[in-house]
Amino acid sequence: MIDGTSTFLILLVALLLDRVIGDPDWLWRRLPHPVVLFGNAISFAEKRFNRPEIAASQREKYGFITIAILLISSVVIGAFFSAVFSWGGLVGIVIETVIVAVFLAQKSLADHVGAVSAGLRKDGVEGGRKAVSMIVGRNAATLDEAGVARAAIESLAENASDGVIAPAFWYAIFGLPGLFAYKMLNTADSMIGHMSERYRAFGRASAKFDDFANWVPARLTGGLIILGGELNNIEDNFRVMIRDAKLHRSPNAGWPESAMAAVCNLALGGPRNYAGGDIADEPFMNDVGDKNANADDIDHAIGVFWRAMTLATIAVALLALLAFLNF
Fold it and tell me: Cys bridge to 78: 6, 135, 177, 278, which one at CB 3.0-4.6 A?
């Protein structure tokens, strides 16, 4: 059986695997990524129950029912696989470890953000815009060099929570059912949890559930980012995070983003134009920081990210040890 000790050991090895290997492109060119399958299920329901001729109140109900069914299905599937792997001995543990690693995004996130830095250096602002458009939802054509760099760093900070700490957190608590449910929910939020006219009603439940699921992980991520910065500035950086996290329109994204702003001495956030026409007119977090971010600042942020992920991995190793010792 896979007990608490095994859960933390699986998570520890999965974090290390994801850090070294990431998402191999050759594999996902041949097989559909699980998140793609989640997205297909969400898209199937959205096309049928979010038609414009349906009243907004009814679409909101359909959206709630849709995400509820998808979450229940994710839990059931996760519980099934968990039961199978529990009786599979070492083979089951290995397979579960690989699955957990697939749902983490350390290396792929760092690689995509690093591509923005490389694009800025090689092809200037156009190269940066092309690379950053792959990882953010905002209208990249409106961004100057500083805007491209800030967008990349903000995405790195937010996705450190959504793509690594949150799935690890929910797996640590509930195993594969928790991991699958979180990834389904987070995928739904990224697809339909927008405030645009099309998704405002249908995606409301997904957005609210996602806010709940990320409440603790976002704050943990903010703390890890600060601990990944310079030790002599930890207290000041914590103050900036606590003060400015609420400036973000998201109840969660502001925590890792304001932490990264403080650690990197940058002003992040501010007014942003999104591809769907949505406009976020927000103040800057750490507004005394430098607004003229560049490729060097992206590289600095990636270094902070990796130190934060190292601390998270050490924490999981300690939890595995404590579980082994029956503390």
Answer: 177
